[in-house]
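Assemble and predict.
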Amino acid sequence: MFGFLSTLNGDAIKTAEVIKGGFPSHYGGRLSSIVDIRMKDGNMEELHGDISVGLISGKFNLEGPLIKDKTSFNISARRTWLDLFTTPIMKLSQSGDRNKTIFKYYFYDFNAKINHKFSDKSRLFLSSYLGKDHFKFRGEDVSKKENGDLEWGNRIFSAKWNYQLNPKIFSNTTIYKGSYIKTFINDVIPIETSGVTNKLSSKSDVTDYGVKIDLDFLYSTDHHIKFGAGYIKHLFKPTAHSSSYQNGTDDPIVNDIPTSRSSANAINAYVEDNIGIGSRVQLNVGLHIANFNVPNANYVSVQPRAAMNVQLNETSSVKFSYSHMTQFVHLLASPGIGFPNDLWVTSTDRIKPEKSIQYAAGITKSLGKGYEITLEGYYKTLKNLLEYKSGISFFTTGKDWENKVVVGNGESYGIELLIEKRIGKLTGWIGYTLSKSNRTFPDLNFGRSFPYKYDRRHDISVALTHKKSDRVDFGLVWVYGSGNTYTLGTRNYNAINFGEDSYFAESFLSTFHPVNHVEKRNNQRAPAFHRLDISVNFHKQKKRGKRTWSFGLYNAYSRQNPFQINLVQRHVDDPSHEKGELYLEQTSLLPIIPFASYSFKF
Amino acid sequence: MNKFKFFTLIIVALICNSCTKELPFPEVEDIPLMVVNSLISPDQDLKVHISESCHVKQQNCKQRNITNAVVRLLDKDGSQLSILIHQGDGVYSAPEFNATYDTEYQLEVSVNNSPLAPVSTKAYVPKPFLCSLTGIEESIIADRVAWNFDVEIDDDPSEENYYIISGNFDIVGGTHDRGDIESNGYIEPHFGHFSDDPNAENEQLAFSNDLTTYPLSAVYLSDNNFNGEKYTTKVGIIDSDLNNYNPLDSNSNINRKIIGNIFIKSVSIDMYDYMLSLEELRLRSGDSFAEPKQVYTNIKDGVGIFAGYTEQKFSADLPPSQFSLPSDIYIENNGCTAPCTVRFSSNGGSNVNYVWEFGEGQPSNGAEVEHTYTQAGEFIGVFSAERIDGNGVSWDFEVIIN
């Protein structure tokens, strides 16, 4: 979160593959990029580990045999403690201010895996992941104190049995449980007892139970066939919501909106064949079929996929892909720029599954000296996307969330350029993506298309490592992304009043209703997000292992990246401005933060 | 200064500057836009209000009327029909002009020597339509006492029609204390309009059933599902206070009557979109957790509305309210000599639950009851009346038996 720590713990992961286009058929249930993470199995021979302690975070990883050559384990954990560092500084810097604002953020996660080998043909893997982000907000002004707490986290447990039926067929049978829980609490407490106390809390919960079997069949050198089937039971509890309002010492008015529990059954099956045609052409064709069942509705989706890779010559290749994808859960993005409060909801009898069709093509060329350049383009259409109705609060979304959303379509396209260097003293990549993402909803923006909240025109990432020697290396990461879009009324005017007074009456032009004029949805763009992180590592081989001292700067030039943008009323006794005017205020979270850490790997 | 202290100071300075900063507003906002407000109909004189917008930073945008605009009304082909004359307060009118049905008009407004961009817009006045009021009944809607108006519309299948239906009441004779909401001689509904017609947009609008907080100004209906036939819709006007008005005004002892008025407007799609979006804005304003509500405009290079409608109005006397709460009770034969029967009655409606406790014996239910007192004495009784929505009244009364 906040680009601060990768959500993947590098110590626990064997491979992590990001798939953006040309999705093979064995993936399903998602429209956009998929991150396929495989955790480390654990060393069967001897105990290995590393531990790292720094100013802003700490982590450890330990792996080794439980029974030599039979059973191994791998555990790792991370925790950021940046909050311990920033909170006192924020307090100090605001001492004496009338308005105080303090943000706290921490993240922790825990991975554990046990790997047992029954025989060369049969293995069992048990793994679990727990991760939680915690974001706190504490505000204070003359009249009130405000507390905000937002927590969100994942828990995943799985058991996988890997079995080799014969030299050509491998099978993986997996059972798992995954859950995503988010809670949000916001309390406004007046300084004087006669003031208004407002308390809000909400909780949302998505839990999946699944079982699946995947088979790999190496039919011949030219045909590698994968097929399988799975079943998932989804349990959704989107936002149970409770609020209470108390005026002075009156009895509080409590409003509880219970959650709507709903469940869904998803069955899927797939088959794909990785075909070699001659020595130069690789073809992957497949089909993913899914059935999604919710009360009063059943959805069947047939998703053909195809990808082709042609080796043009020794240094160049081209690839093409075409994929149909269906997603039965919808991401409901909260409007505006502010609290990360996006919500997952299910398809229902009224809300159809999201669908996308994606076309992609790319060319890769090796330039020698370890350089490789890739140029890719894609075009994607999206159907049955969800957005909140205009003017509707996402906060009170409870039971009746279906009444608060509108359905529409989207399209996105872009080109990506990636220059990579994999060998040599200097390694890394420079990537640039130019893209556009639009939404068209009959009931939003008067039916005209508008830019998506996460429409990112330019996206640049630079990650470079310079290995000066075995003992010293330097790292540099720079990311740049166009700002998110948001909606801002650009002018105020007076409209014909009606409501309290009849607009049809003779005097309909005698009173007016103030209107904040919003010309287009998402008409504003937040300032671009960019950040430079630099680090230097000093390694030394000790008798028992390798120690590393790391020093660096997070957000090296202290870029104030937007976290929230609000229209705020100017302080009344501000002498330089007209009383009560509004201005646009951007809140940023993390400035330059120096860090130092010590790690030891054995 | 030691190194640690220096380092800490730098960090503090950086963080101080990093939490919040002011962003500039988009420059384009410094130029105001022209605001045009006008509805055009054969049923009323054409009036156009011209003003200019304020910067978004000004929370309370004062009305900035424009008094020197050139306001031209044109026909569909661009021939000038009238130049409107300023009447004061930014309102322009065309005294000689009468709008006709099924006609498109254009409006062009410019201001000389002004940074305001000239604007233009079009409005369509729909065809006349047939409709009637076929019934009025009193009922309970959303736990409140309401009047339901049955409105029948003859659908013209050849075009899309949009209807905005609203109503109000008129108390004729006697006195009433609804002065605070009286406007132009009418009594505005306290709790707004309601519809359970699935074709109406009202249920969508009133996402909360709390119509006290979110009153709706009208019923919004499009004829997508009418199929060229006669279509009946119920327009509910929630006003439980009104039901407390008895035919006999106890203050003045004058028999008054309550008239229900219903206004059925066939509107252009522009007006429908505009009114709907304004309604939503009104209902949902002030929610910081929501994307701002967009209000529709059809003014090119400006904001506001110029749209056409035609209207039919029906009025009918409301029948006596079944749900009216009593304002008085009547005791007959009070002061009789025991044993004797005393008769009690009240002036409330027939659909109210009455309880009479007589100061002795079993209580009775009903608008009119009797009780036989067998002994002399002074009895303090309690009368209470409660309506299905929970509203009620209660009084003590005294019976003397000789």
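Helices of chain A lie at 82-94.
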